[in-house]
Design brief:
The structure is a homodimer.
Chain A (H helix, E strand, L loop, with lengths): L20 H8 L3 E5 L2 E4 L1 H20 L3 E2 L5 E3 H7 L1 H4 L6 E3 L5 E4 L4 H11 L8 E10 L14 E11 L2 H22 L3 E5 L10 E7 L5 E5 L6 E3 L20 E4 L6 H8 L7 E11 L5 E12 L6 H4 L10 E2 L2 H8 L16 E5 H4 L4 E4 L5 E6 L10 E3 L18 E15 L9 E3 L5 E3 L1 E8 L3 H8 L1 E2 L2 E2 L10 E5 L6 H16 L4 E3 L6 H11 L3 E5 L1 H5 L2 E6 L6 E4 L3 H10 L1
Parallel strand pairs in A: 3-7, 15-17, 17-20, 27-28, 27-29
Antiparallel strand pairs in A: 1-2, 4-6, 5-6, 7-8, 8-24, 9-10, 10-21, 11-12, 11-21, 13-19, 14-15, 14-16, 18-19, 21-24, 22-23, 25-26, 29-30, 30-31
Helix pairs in contact in A: 1-11, 2-6
Protein name (chains A, B): Proline--tRNA ligase
Subcellular location (chains A, B): Cytoplasm
Subunit structure (chains A, B): Homodimer.
């Protein structure tokens, strides 16, 4: 490819609304172009990256036995009504009326349509297992689209769906995909982690996110540096402390803490470590009758150590809270504790509440909590002596660096990541409402067990850039670079030798199947180098008159601090060897 | 590929709503699946055809110097308001409101968006010419979607747009595309014609349709068997007759023709050839004031030979009619001719009308037309003697078989076709309202000259099938077949030799880059053969125990009446040679 026949379009400055590095660099490198809020054109340079990503995904999906099809972007609402998602999804589901006033949606995913195909096509146990996937445009009407293609409204996703005859087979299909995803992400050449994720109401451990590691990532990834353990923050378990509860050494004392309503303030005032304090969070669950009216409300007090944060997913799994909880209203708090939030605690509540203690709080002694009276805290609090043992002890908190790893192989570390893939066991969540059944050996209809497997195709370039860039621009891994090699001739117009050498190298590399671009635009060296460093082509060869006179060209990897001189005769082999590395 | 790992899904009967052969066969062969009216899933078998078509289109577009990008499916209305198409397009333009009540459309094409990109990116004459294309999902909310993917609502189109500095350069860019399209259609392996088409208001001859020949095609294609001349019916010129007008031999006579209001009925009654009659068509043009009120109406009488049909495009080019015409109302007809339609003619009109005679009518003598009195015609009519020469003589009619070819190289023939491609010179139709300008050498802004070039990717398989099928199913050309070769082992379960031979041939062909499918489903021979004949795989190899004992396999092309025995050792080379043919 010659640059003059391509569309190289770089910008010195990123637009003002580009907040993150990947968005800024993709705009500056001419990879994407904004058409509207959260809607982007993939410019030629960016599309080359997308196609390589799609190619890798397709190859590995096919290798894993998945079969590609293409489901429509615009789907009749009736399928979405069958599963109830037409009603339950919020405005992020883009709804359309056609000329006959019939309801349609623009697909955000395709569970309904693929399940409809399965219930028609997969009639017998002999046709299972089966995995169907497509790589297709999707739309999610985000309230606040941002970060470029990282959180856009129109996007491309690879979504695969597996259909199995039973749970055992479904788990095997899940594992095939989990393995294929590792192969895919390995090929991308990005640092990533497959992290255990919460599988929601379905239960089990069959949910993993594929996170591209990046300091700017939205998600916290918990991992053990000594083992394979990795989970997202929702999922990572905080083990019960192995040390027993300490003996009580202090007397229960009501202590004045005027104006100090946070654990941090109280700890500072009393000159104790934050770890001695306990924070109180008040939740409520409602019981409703068949008309949906609330007939009974239960108030819950969750206790966490002052330096810990509540994990809502974990709280939502506590028996009794798993029906769906909400934060209590101020009126409910006053009614049950006799005071406003800020000075709450489990001792002397005005009305009975259920006490749920985090595992860590359950082993604390001589702790501090609110006194249920404004401007006062209780100090020297001890379980058993000052209040009954908690109603429930549970893992309620986010893990922190240094917590023991759940696999017992060391302590946990935390880094940040960008979710670009997810494998998930669905069970019969969709097959049940849509009655997707097959006939088993006895001719009896059985519900299919499903799994779903997504990769954010258009999000991936942004994640790759968040991980791989410097002050000069993007640094692509070879596998997904728009071009693997750029040949930069200096003074091509003045020197026939330079022109011929550049063309020869370009042609040789192209004939060898290398994605090479020859910059024949006639730019000056500084501007030319800046463009390709911004675009992030990993391998560069510079050809100059002076170099040729010495029989040498200059090679530089995008990550190299300086160029390496390479004998002109050897440059083809040299570059090929670097590409294969 | 093994059939057991693919999704082979054939039907004995086509659904009732499948009217045409391609729709029936695509449904029966499991190529597509209906999701809603005019909305189809491309099933794995069909998607393989699409991907091959896309691959050929992409290769040839790139070879021709076009650059691929990807414009969004959902586009903000504001761009469409700039060109006025948001207002002027009917309900086939699918309009959407997002969660913030802002207006969007689902793209039916992308002129607006690509012109917006061009006006931002192509600033200088140095960046021109440029051709940008994408292969993307589109939507046209057809009132009555039908014929499967031939006239669906959601479809995939390759649309390319060229940008040039002036008309000369734009014409050169057009020719590059016209040539690339020939290369593309040649590679598809379909019989097609590139036919000249009307270029509408823009004028010039830069509009060609690429029509796949099929007896069931919606379009009539006019061509000269002795030359390259080909045009669609709107465009094909009916030359002025070379013979002079004959002398008058009959007297003008008012003849009773009770109840005979058509030319055919009159010719039969009077026992004269239909070619002696002249039909009268009454049109009207309105002159409006600045408030859009009609201030003046002109009535026109168009005269065509009784056996000829009016061509509205040609009529619309007659000076005076080119402002836009309509058919006259019955009231206007009575007002101007003194009688109702059925007995109209140019003689003795009650009020003056403009007479436009088709070229053929202008040289007629002793002809027959209505007498402007119910149940009477005039016979023996002659120009000059009985009525003045016509106000205008023009080509008003559709050509018919046997008309002289406009290039003077023989006579015209007519066949039917399905339009799957169109190359079109746009001029400044979009660049003008959107102010897409570049700076010329003198630094002056100039409007870009544009062209647009479409290929109906999802329509093409249907067109290919309309052209290539028989009572057993589809017959794909090699280049776009879902699989090039099917290996059918008979009794694979019983015979280890058959299984091994089938697997070996499959593996050899696959290793050689052939798209081969091994039918390992264990179907009985009849059902297996019927499936692959329905799907239309062009090359089949049957492996049986009996054959192997004789050292022979059976090869049969989908068009062959019978199988050919091939020595087992030679079958790989034999099949490869057939594929290359």
């Amino acid at each position: 490819m010659k640059a003059s026949q391509f569309l190289v379009s770089t910008l010195k400055e990123a637009p003002a609304d580009a907040e993150v590095a990947s968005h800024q660099l993709m705009m500056r490198a001419g990879m994407i172009k904004k058409l509207g809020a959260g809607i982007y054109t993939w410019m030629p340079m960016g599309l080359r990256v997308l196609r390589k990503i799609e190619g890798i995904v397709r190859e590995e999906m096919n290798r894993a036995g998945a079969v590609e099809l293409l489901m429509p972007v615009i789907q009749p609402a009736e399928y979405w009504q069958e599963t109830g998602r037409y009603q339950s999804m919020g405005p992020e589901l883009l709804r359309i009326k056609d000329r006959h006033d019939r309801d349609f949606i623009v697909q955000p995913t395709s569970e309904e349509v693929v399940t409809d195909i399965a219930r028609q096509e997969l009639r017998s146990y002999k046709q299972l297992p089966r995995n169907l996937y497509h790589i297709q445009t999707k739309f999610r009407d985000e309230r606040r689209p941002r970060f470029g293609v990282m959180r856009s409204r129109e996007f491309i996703m690879k979504d695969a769906y597996s259909f199995d005859r039973d749970v055992t087979s479904a788990k095997a299909s899940y594992q095939v995909m989990a393995k294929a995803y590792r192969a895919i992400f390995d090929r991308f050449g990005l640092r990533y982690r497959a992290v255990a994720a919460d599988s929601g109401a379905i239960g089990g451990d069959l949910s993993e996110e594929f996170q591209v590691i990046a300091a700017t990532g939205e998600d916290a990834i918990v991992y053990c540096p000594n083992s394979d353990y990795a989970a997202n923050m929702e999922k990572a378990e905080a083990l019960a402390p192995s040390k027993p509860r300490g003996a009580a050494t202090l007397a229960l004392t009501k202590t004045a803490t005027p104006g100090k309503s946070t654990c941090a303030d109280v700890a500072q005032l009393l000159n104790v470590p934050l770890q001695s304090t306990v924070k109180s969070l008040v939740l409520a669950t409602d019981e409703t009758n068949e008309r949906g009216e609330i007939v009974k409300t239960q108030v819950w007090l969750l206790l966490l150590r002052g330096d810990h944060d509540m994990n809502e997913i974990k709280a939502g799994k506590v028996p009794g809270l798993d029906v769906g909880f909400r934060f209590a209203t101020v009126a409910e708090v006053i009614d049950h504790f006799g005071t406003k939030p800020g000075y709450l605690g489990p001792i002397n509540t005005s009305r009975p509440v259920k006490i749920v203690a985090d595992r860590e709080v359950a082993v604390m002694s001589d702790w501090i909590c609110g006194a249920n009276e404004a401007d006062f805290h209780m100090t020297g609090v001890n379980w058993g002596r000052d209040l009954p043992e908690p109603d429930v002890i549970a893992d309620l908190r986010n893990v922190v660096e240094g917590d023991p790893s759940p696999d017992g192989k060391g302590t946990l570390a935390i880094e940040r990541g960008i979710e670009v893939g997810h494998v998930f066991y669905l069970g019969t969540k969709y097959s049940k409402p849509m009655q997707a059944t097959f006939l088993d050996e006895t001719g009896k209809p059985q519900l299919m067990e499903m799994g779903c497997y997504g990769i954010g195709i258009t999000r991936l370039p942004a994640a790759a850039i968040e991980q791989n860039h410097d002050e000069r621009g993007i640094i692509w891994p070879d596998a997904i670079a728009p071009f693997g090699v750029v040949v930069c001739p200096i003074g091509m117009d003045r020197s026939a030798e330079v022109k011929a050498a550049a063309q020869k190298l370009h042609d040789e590399l192209e004939a060898a199947g290398v994605d090479v671009i020859l910059d024949d635009r006639g730019e000056r060296p500084g501007a030319m180098f800046a463009d390709w460093e911004l675009v992030g082509v990993p391998h560069r060869v510079v050809i100059s008159d002076r170099g040729l006179k010495e029989g040498q060209l200059e090679y530089q990897h995008r990550r190299d601090a300086a160029a390496t001189k390479v004998a002109a005769a050897e440059v083809f082999g040299f570059v090929k060897a670097r590409l294969q590395a």
